[in-house]
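Reply to thread "Modeling small-molecule complexes from scratch"

Following up on the discussion above, here's a worked example others can learn from. I took a protein sequence and the SMILES for fe (ii) ion and predicted the complex. Inputs first:
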Amino acid sequence: MSLKRRKFISLGSFSFINFINSGSIKSGSIKFGPAYLASSITTFNRPIFASELQSQISSKDRSNKNDLLLRFISVADTGTGGDGQYSVAQSMINYRRQNPYNLVILAGDNIYTNGEIEKINSVFERPYASLLKQGIKFYSVLGNHDIRTANGEPQVKYFGFNMQGRYYTFYHGSVQFFALDTNHNADWQNQLIWLEKELSNSKAIWKIVFGHHQIYSSGVYGVNKPFIDVLTPLFQKYGVQLYINGHEHNYERTRPINGTTYMVCGGGANTRPVGRSEWTEYSASKLSFAAYNVYADRIEISGIGTDNEVFDRGVIPLNSGHLQVNSRLI
Ligand SMILES: [Fe+2]
């Protein structure tokens, strides 16, 4: 093993373990927005690349800007099999009746407490049976609880999680998703090389990264400095507009930070307290999931509770992830 690699692993492991064990809670006020239900929109599902987008945006005919390219939802920290998970699952099912989606980002801690794959029926297949029967695809990553059994390998192989490895990427229409293993024992060196290669080769207009652990957060674990140091420069350099995570059992949406919006959606089965930070757009300690309507020029985000109400709405403009790149180029 090279000195460089040993040094990376040593520093990385120390930092990540410190982060995982940290437990400061920030206090703050929480505001609730007006109830809102998104309207049903036509679907449009094929790749759109940057050059094509430019012609769309520069065109005087902007009617296609309101064509929905993709709708998906995200939820995390789900795997209890308890009442909280079933309540959120029911709101996901209810939401889909008026807002069809076929893709769910499942951001880790899929099986509590120790990633026991034999519990898969009670913590995944039964709670989401109605969605699975309709062919909705869940794309998962490994949380800290998931790696406690055989380092999460049974979940990587489980067909219902659609994982192509511990980290992987996939396209869905005009969006490219990048799934990360954010655990302390991940193969960070190779994963970061892979991530940079995939991001630099990506022709998708929307780049969305997801992993279990938080980066910017006002929850129990708080801001994750090692991840800010390691991951966010790549997000900034390659124009990642959105990072989605769990681990924190709450909902939090940030404003774009150096071009990236950070979404915590860990209220999939339980809740913990959350405060707010200067970059927080909205935070709430609520059982909830998040829904995303992707258009050519924006992503509209909704936070949805178990009362089926949309308690938060936000918009990510397309250029949010490219501002820093462009300004550097200029
Ligand atoms: Fe976790």
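What I'd highlight from this example: Residues 1-62, 323-330 have pLDDT under 50 and may be disordered. The longest strand covers residues 298-305. Questions welcome below.
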